[in-house]
Specification:
Layout (H helix, E strand, L loop, with lengths): L10 H5 L8 E4 L5 H11 L5 E4 L3 E2 L1 H10 L5 E3 L4 E2 L1 H10 L5 E3 L11 H6 L5 E3 L30
Parallel strand pairs: 1-2, 2-4, 3-5, 4-6, 6-7
Protein name: FBD domain-containing protein
InterPro entries: LRR_dom_sf
Organism: Camellia sinensis var. sinensis
Length: about 160
């Protein structure tokens, strides 16, 4: 598929109906995320892991994750710009999470008491380096780190 057409807004949602066995979905941005997740919820019943690389997770995106992927097991929103209340919505709505990586996010503080309490049932919760403001990244911000996200699904 030509490079340009891979980024057409309508390409990925149209492909979802053909990916019925899809277990892991990693998006390069949060653009068209609601439409993609709506199609995923319909066609991809085996989905257990979802990630957005350095996205802007607004209320509508958090709501789409909660309403369309309520039983997701693994979620990575590493390096996202996400308001605290949107993370709280995800933590309250996605009760089956076993892995959640919100490291190096901007919009909430690492070690926030309420967030840690809401995440206490998640066996692997990562919020290292997240801050309300003054975004600082001590690792390679430009890359998507696996850090256990694919454990049990993909071996390197």
């Amino acid at each position: 598929m030509p490079y340009e057409s891979c980024f057409e807004d309508e390409i990925i949602p149209k492909l979802m109906s053909k990916w019925k066995a899809l277990e892991i979905l990693v998006l390069g941005s949060s653009l068209e995320m609601e439409e993609i997740l709506a199609e995923t919820a319909i066609h991809c019943k085996n989905l257990v892991a979802f990630a957005v690389i350095s996205g802007y997770i607004e209320e509508r995106h958090a709501s789409a994750i909660v309403n369309l992927l309520p039983n997701i097991k693994r979620l990575s929103l590493r390096h996202a710009h996400m308001a605290r209340e949107n993370l709280v919505m995800i933590l309250k709505g996605c009760k089956e999470l076993e892995y959640l990586d919100v490291s190096f996010c901007e919009g909430f503080d690492e070690g926030d008491g309420e967030i840690l309490k809401l995440a206490s049932h998640i066996s692997s919760f990562k919020d290292k380096g997240s801050s309300l403001d003054n975004y600082y990244c001590e690792d390679d911000c430009s890359s998507f780190r696996y850090d256990g996200f694919f454990d049990g699904y993909w071996s390197e």
